[in-house]
Specification:
Layout (H helix, E strand, L loop, with lengths): L1 E8 L4 E7 L2 H29 L7 H10 L10 E8 L3
Antiparallel strand pairs: 1-2, 1-3
Helix pairs in contact: 1-2
Length: 89
């Protein structure tokens, strides 16, 4: 039986958040994780602005990369992951 592992990964971490029995369910979760990562980046832009940081944290670039990302692809920022696996008896 096949399952899909859905989570997120970055420079120094990898996290599985869901094990899905259908690809459609896995895609739904993948998009949820991607949207959450975009929201976190937007929150960081607001935080840096409110704290008076003048340096660019690169959050706009991360948002653009995540918005263009397709399931199964990776990018140069924290991104959602989806991987098909076979369950062993």
């Amino acid at each position: 039986m096949k399952v899909w592992l859905v989570g997120s990964a970055g420079y120094d971490f990898s996290d599985i958040q869901y094990v899905c029995l259908s690809y459609e369910s896995a895609l739904k979760r993948w998009y949820e994780i991607r949207d959450n990562l975009i929201k976190q980046a937007e929150d960081m832009i607001i935080y840096e602005h409110n704290e008076g940081y003048t340096g660019n944290g690169g959050w706009e670039k991360d948002i653009a990369l995540l918005q263009k990302l397709k399931p199964g692809e990776t990018c140069q920022c924290d991104c959602p992951t989806i991987k098909e696996m076979e369950v062993e008896p």
